[in-house]
Amino acid sequence: MAKDQTPVVRLQDYAPPAYLVDRVELDFRLDPQSTRVRSRLHVRPNPDGPGGDLVLDGEDLELTALELDGAPLAGTAYKLDKDRLTITTPPERAFVLDIGTTIDPSANTRLMGLYRSNGVYCTQCEAEGFRRITFFPDRPDVLAVYTVRIEARASDAPVLLSNGNPVGSGVVAGSDRHYAVWHDPHPKPSYLFALVGGDLGRVGDTFVTASGREVTLGIYVEKGKEDRCDYALEALKRSMRWDEDAFGREYDLDVFNIVAVSDFNMGAMENKGLNVFNDKYVLASPETATDTDYANIEAIIAHEYFHNWTGNRITCRDWFQLCLKEGLTVFRDQEFSADVRSRAVERIGDVRTLKAHQFVEDAGPLAHPVRPETYKEINNFYTATVYEKGAELIRMLKTLLGADGFRAGMDLYFDRHDGTAATIEDFIGCFAEATGRKLDDFMLWYHQAGTPEVTASGRYDTAARTYELTLEQTCPPTPGQPTKQPMPIPIAFALLGPDGDEITDLKTESPAVRDGLIELTGTRERIVFTDLPAKPVPSLLRGFSAPVKLTANLTDDDLLFAAAEDSDPYNRWQAVQSLATRILIAAQAAIADGRTPEIEPRFLRSLEHTVEADALDPSFRAQVLSLPSESDIAREIGRNVDPDAIHGADQWLRGLIGGELGACLTDVYRRFGSNLPYSPDAAGAGRRALRNTALGLIAGTGQAGIETAEQHYRNADNMTDRMAGLSALTRQGAPEADAALDDFFERYRTDPLVLDKWFSLQATMTGADTLDRVTALMRHPAFSLSNPNRVRALVGAFAAANPTQFNRADGAGYRLVADFTLEIDRSNPQVAARLLSAFRSWRVLEPVRRAAAEAALRRIAGHEGLSRDSADIVERSLD
Ligand code: PHE
Ligand code: ZN
C-alpha cells in the first residue's frame, strides 16, 4: 500500500503568524451554483511574527480579483497554489488586500465551508472550512473584527444571518435582491465565522442578563417546524442563567441566534452569536423525540452557548489546544445538566459514555493524548479523548483544588486571557497562580495517552485494628508512548463500617490522605488507617473521581454490601455493574466452552431490592437495572473477544432476570405507568426509564411479554414509550416486530429525524438476516447518502452498535461497511472517516474475526484516491 504522503503537523513547530488581520469586510452575493465573495482584509505585519511572505489558505476557490491598497496585483507579486495564495514580499506596513472569489455551494458535499442544505445556505468553518470561502490565514490565532454584507434573491433567502449584531438591511434597488449587514465587535478567529441564508421560520424570545442587557433570542428552522423549538429555547434561557450563576459569565451581544439545518457533519457549532445546529439537536415534540433526545438537546444547546466564553471570548492558539475549549466546555455542560437534572444519574450516564467511547479509543491504535502533539488531519481529533477525557481532567482539577480554588483559577483565566488565543499551559498556569499549588505533574494528564490502571488492595488486621490500603498505578503503552510516568490521581473515598455508614474521623499518618480524598502521586502508596474496631469495606473512586481503570480486591460479598449500602450513589451503581460484569464474563466463557453459565443468586436479590426501593430516584433505579452492554463486556475482556459468546451471555442473564424478577418487574411496570400528559422533565423521564427498562426485560420472558411490548408500542402517547415498545420487539427478534416496524414507518414516513430511529433499530437487530436488511435499507427511498444523520443512523449504528453482526465471523459485516465507506468517502470524507473508526478495536477480536477485519482495513487503505481523513484513520488503525 502506498503510504499517504500528507505532511504531519507538529505542535513543536508552532510559530506565530507573520501577519495579523485586524478587520475583515466580507460581501456575499449568494447564488446556488455561483456565489461571489469579496473580501477586504486589513492586514499588518505581526511584530512578534517571523516576517516573510503573506500566505493565505484557500481550497476549491476560483480567484477572480486581487488588489493591494486598491491596485491590482501583478502576476509576479503573488503565487497561486492548490491550497494557498502567497503574496510575495508584501509591504512592511499595514495594508489593505481585496480578494474576489467564486464558489459553488451546491457542489459542496463535504459540508465544510459554504454549502446548501435543503435549500438553505449555511456555513461550517471549524476547523479549516473558512479557506473554502475565501483566501485567509485560516488559523485560530488570527483574530479579526468582521463586518459582513449578504445579498440574495429575496424570494430565495428572505432570512440573512451572520455573526454579531444586525446593523443594516434593505432592498437592492431595481432588482429582486435584498441584503443584510452584520457586525461582530468581538475579534474572532475565522473558524467562528458563520452565515445563513434561506426561507426559514423563526421562534423568538428575549433574555435579560444579570447586568440588564436585553438580548433578542431567535431559533430558525425549516418552515412548519416552529412548534418543535420550545424546548430548545427554554434550554437556552436556562443555560444563559446558569453560566451567570455558576461561572459569573454573561452574554455579550444584542442578539443570539440558533439555526437548525438538516445536513450537518457534527452535532452543532458555536459560531459567535450564530450557533448552527444539526436539527436533530433542536427539534423536539413529545410525539417525535424521546426523553434521551430532550436531554441531548438541553446539553448541546448549553454546550454551544457555554462556548461563548470557553472557546469564543478565549479561543485556542492552535488546533493542538482543542481540549482547551472542548474538554472545558463539556465539563461545563455536564455540570449544568447535573444541576438542572439529577447529579448522580448525570454522572453515571457520563461515565458510561466515557468508558464506552474514550476507554475503547485509549486502548486501541487511535489512542492519543488529550492534547495531541502531531496530526495529519485535524478533523480526526474531535474525539472522545479530547472531549470526554478532556472534561474529566477539568473535573479532577476541581477535585484537587476544591470548589473555591477552581473558581479562583477560572476567574483568573477569564480575566487574563479574554480576547486572546490561549494554550493549555496558559489555562493550567492560572490555577497554579490562583491557588499557589504547583501543577506541573498534572500536565502529564495532557501529555500521556492511555487509561491508567489503579489496583487497590486492602487488608484488615484484627489484632492491630488497622486497615492497610495499598494503591498502585501503571499506564499501558500507547502509540508513540511506550513508557509512562505516574500521574496525580485523585481518589475520592470513604471506609464503610459494618452498618454501612461512612466511618468519620479516620486516623492515618499518610500525607496522601485528606478529607475524603487520597492523592495518589507516585507509582505506589501505602496507607494505614488505625484504630478501627472492625473490617471496613472501602468505597474507592467515589463519583468516578479520576478516569482510571480501578481493580480492587473486593469480594462478591463486599460488592453486594456496597450495592445495598454505599452512600455514594455512583459507587452503589458501580458495585452492581461490577458484579454483573463478573457474572457476564464467566458466562460468556462458559458459553464459548459449551458449558452452562451460573448465576450468583444474591445478585438477583440485590437487583430486586434496589428496583423495589421506592426511596430511590426511579432514574437511578433504571440505571442499576441496565446491565453492562455487550461492548462493555468486550472491553473488560480485552483480548480474543468472541462477540457471539458475549451476546449469548447477555441473552441468558436478561432472560434470568426477567424470569426470576418477573413479579417485581411487572409490579414496577404497572405502578410507573402514568395518566398524566407527557412532560420531558427529569422526573417524568426517570419514571419512564425505569418502567421501560422493566418492559425490556419482561419482553424476553415469552409470548405474554411480547404481547405486553406490543401493547406498549400501540398505546404509547409519546415517542419514548413508542420506541421502548418497538425496541423491546426488535430486540427479541419477535415475528411481531416486522408488523410494528411497518406501522412505525407509515406513521412517521414524512419525518426524517424519526425515521432515523427506525433505521437504527433495524441496523442493530441481532438476527443473521440483519446484513440483508441493512443492504436493502441502503436503497430505501427514505435513505440518503448525502445526509450524515441518515448515514449514521443506518451504517453508523450497524458498525458501532451491532457487535455480533458487524463482527460476523464470515467478514460480511466488515465488507458491507468497507464498501459503503469507500462510496461515501468520495463525497464526504469526514463522515467516512468517522464510520471507519468502528474498526479501531479489531486487534482484541478472536483470530478469525481479527483476520477478516484486517483484510477489510487493508483493502480500504489500498483504495485509489482515498481521502486524507480516511487514510489517516486506516493507517493508524493498522499501525
Ligand atoms: N465545535 C463543535 C462543538 O461544539 C464541534 C464541531 C467541530 C462542529 C467541527 C463542527 C465541526 O463541539
Ligand atoms: Zn464544543
TrEMBL record:
Q: According to its UniProt record, which reaction does this protein catalyse?
A: Release of an N-terminal amino acid, Xaa-|-Yaa- from a peptide, amide or arylamide. Xaa is preferably Ala, but may be most amino acids including Pro (slow action). When a terminal hydrophobic residue is followed by a prolyl residue, the two may be released as an intact Xaa-Pro dipeptide
Under Gene Ontology molecular function, one entry of this record is: zinc ion binding
- What enzyme category does the UniProt record give? hydrolase
Q: Which InterPro entries match?
A: Aminopeptidase_N-like_N (IPR045357), Aminopeptidase_N-like_N_sf (IPR042097), PepN_Ig-like_sf (IPR038438), Peptidase_M1 (IPR001930), Peptidase_M1_dom (IPR014782), Peptidase_M1_pepN (IPR012779), Peptidase_M1_pepN_C (IPR024601), Peptidase_M1_pepN_C_sf (IPR037144)
Tell me which residues make up the Peptidase M1 membrane alanine aminopeptidase domain. 231-443
Q: What is its EC number?
A: 3.4.11.2
Q: Which cofactor does it need?
A: Zn(2+)
Name all Peptidase M1 alanyl aminopeptidase C-terminal domain ranges.
556-878
Q: What is this protein called?
A: Aminopeptidase N
Print the organism lineage: Bacteria, Pseudomonadati, Pseudomonadota, Alphaproteobacteria, Hyphomicrobiales
